[in-house]
Amino acid sequence: MNTTPFNDGTAQSLSEAYRRGDDQVAALFGSAHCKDIEAWSKRAARLDQGAGGRVDRRRLGEALLDYQRRLSPGPLALRHIEALAGEGALAVVGGQQAGLFGGPLLIAYKALTVIQAAKHASRRLSRTVVPVFWIAGEDHDFEEANHLYVSPGEGEPRKVKLGRPEGPRHAVSRTPLSAVDWEVALTELALTLPDTEFKPNLLRQIRMHASDAPTLTLAFARLLSEWFADDGLVLMDADDPAIRRLEGGLFGELVAGSERLSDALAAGEEAVKRLGYPIQAESAPDGANLFVHAEQGRMLLFRQGDRFEDRKGGLAYDRNELLRMAAERPEQLSNNALSRPLMQDYLLPVLATVLGPSEIAYWASLGPAFAAFGLEMPVIVPRQSFTYLEPQVEKLLTKYGVTAAQIAADGERLKRDWLAAQDTWDIGGRFADVKSRFGELYAPVLETVSQVDKGLVKLGESNLELILEQIAYLEQRTTGALAGRHESSLRQWDRMLHSLRPLEQPQERVYGIVHFINRYGMGWLSALRCIPFDVTGGHRLMAQKQAEPGGRHQEVCCS
To answer: For 45-76, what is each residue's pLDDT tens digit?
Structure first.
């Protein structure tokens, strides 16, 4: 793939300042910056001294190994787990909520960044660094995870959706799915994806991993495990009971020191505000920053004195009850977005963490929270971000003399301007002239009518409106006929728009990973590995570099 910097219009000001190496912003993250190899070395040394990764490594390895056995791990992932279970290995961690059939493209890009960052660190530190993908299976927003968009071939992207069972909103990893639920979604996917030479194998692969999966999270993990089997990517589900049993210690600290966490979060937010940046994820002054899994669903807790309740008051625990829960039944607790980073550092020897722009923005306020619990922030690595320029779309850009950046920024206006330029008759001008002149000619008629009978004035005005409406209708039909003359070209404009800015959103947030695998085969995913790693991230336009006729990517695998 060839890549060039590209503005997709979604850059966060704080994350961009971090990428540029702004000293004041870097101070929010402990004055470390990912492009400084010394920051990596210092973090590694602190981990060797016992900072981070407080749980028993042997038990951690057993939990990770047990989870991989439910997936399709390659031998390298198993060796990586063996290394983590021992001493000396470090981890680069990135995570995301599970997504239907692999989720949107940004998940592939995050997994790729985790893998590349681990290799980057391993080479420079001359030690084992393991890529770990943290699946946020504890999240309960099923509607955010249960769909993806693919192109049917022509027209706008279409949503493929997995139905949600009736009942309380439990964690996605605790929401059971039936074979019927999966069959409905699989059938919809098969009907929506356009026929290609890659479609049969892709559907077989997805069906193999999803049709008998008890949860959306497990189906997602199975697919990612196979797609990145050669890269040694270790997957973990944050809601895995075996992982939860390792987390009781920090859960207890978060309960006992709940007020301390709230104060630290408030201090971190003030530091961000002083630099003039908005708060991405604002903490609640009375928030416990913990959820409890109950019959009613996954419920967020808030402090009321020495008690912890949900907002509706349906659940209530005193502090000692929660402390016992943390010690004896930690699987009943889970983190929110602000306490999850602390748990990640408690659980794993995190050398670096891979974050998207919004994540960087809210992590900026977490420095005091890490310190309040004796933890230190890892090196922050911005996620690699891409817009893929398809070969056919690249040809259309050349044909119409526009750039991908112009389409992404203002494609609809460019399309309208192009169609207007095809109007050699000046349709809009002629109709505007007719309407203006008709109004001028009609005014004396209305004056005469009013002199004859004032009661006819309203009828005359209504008559004018009707005539102008008919002229406007004819103008609309004429403009439509002009568009019909250029239907083929307008479809090509739509092809560019739907590819580069689908649903007027960034491509990586709309299309599923399977969208491009169906079009270009697994070679497309392999070609991503050849993109040079930029430790500071940023958004890039990637275009095909080496392909077989018809747009098929060569099956290449780069280290």
So the answer is: 999 998 877 899 999 999 999 999 999 899 99
Note the helical H segments in 381-506.
391-400, 404-421, 427-452, 457-485, 487-500
How far, in Å, CA of 340 to CA of 335, rounded?
A: 5
| Total residues belonging to the chain | 559
Match 């390895």 to its residue by tokens: 61
For residue 553, name the pLDDT band (cuts at 50, 70, 90): low
Helix then strand then coil, % of the chain, to nearest 5:
55, 15, 30
Q: Render 399-413 in DSSP notation, one character per residue.
A: HHT--HHHHHHHHHH
> Are the C-beta atoms of 132 and 236 separated by less than 8 Å?
yes
Higher pLDDT: 551 or 454? It is 454
CA distance 528 to 537: 14
32: tokens are 């470390």
Tokens read off for 509: 């947030």
Show contacts of 437-446: CB within 8 Å, 24+ apart: 438/467, 438/468, 438/471, 439/464, 439/468, 442/467
pTM of the predicted structure, to 2 decimals: 0.89
The whole-angstrom separation of Cα 171 and Cα 7 is: 35
Residue 518 tokens read as 């169906």
Strands 307-309, 316-318: pairing kind: antiparallel
Confidence of residue 14 (pLDDT cuts 50, 70, 90): very high
What number of other Cβ atoms are within 10 A of residue 460's Cβ? 17
Per-residue pLDDT, averaged over 370-382, amounts to 96
